[in-house]
Amino acid sequence: MTVAQTQSRWSLRLRLDTTFGSQCQSAELKTGATRGYVIFRGKRFAAVFYTRGARTDTGIQIGSPVSALRRAYGSRLRSEPDKYERGSLNYYVKRARRPFWELRFDVSPRGRVDLIAFGDRYVHLVEGCA
User: Fold this and answer.
1) CA of 83: how far to CAs of 2, 22, 57, 65, 88, in Å?
2) Domains of the chain
3) How far apart are CA 63 and CA 51, in angstroms?
């Protein structure tokens, strides 16, 4: 989706930050109780990162225990250590057929989901567009 299509579909206005250049833009997401940010690559939607207010179709939300994540996604979950927070894991669920997408769940050392992301391969971004 383009920026305009994303704004229309989500019924909100996004202010793009072009700090990372013309190929990668980010925008703060703040609507109701939902917080996070959106990444666009080449002016097309790449990923959204939720830090508050997100809930998946399986009921996983910010604050859910890792046990609920494992029950919801089972063997489809893949994990890797978080790049910055020692003891934290990032879990991924990938859709195997078109349209391809991934879910990302960052789990704190306390075993709770503290970030949910959705998008293409850019859910693996660590910081902004990097």
Assistant:
1) 29, 26, 27, 20, 9
2) 3-124 (3.40.33.10)
3) 10
Q: What pLDDT, in 10s, does the model give residues 7-66?
A: 888 888 888 887 766 688 888 988 888 999 999 988 888 999 999 999 999 999 999 999
What is the distance of C-alpha 31 from the center of its chain? 16
Decide: 28 and 15 in contact? Cβ < 8 Å: yes
The pTM is what? 0.88
Q: Kind of pairing, strands 24-31 and 16-17?
A: antiparallel
Tokens (6 digits) for 5: 């299509």
Cα–Cα distance, 6 to 110 (Å, whole number) = 34
106: buried, middle or exposed (CB in 10 Å: 19+, 13-18, 0-12)? buried
Tokens of 94: 């990938």
Helical residues (DSSP H) of the chain, grouped into ranges: 3-10, 66-73
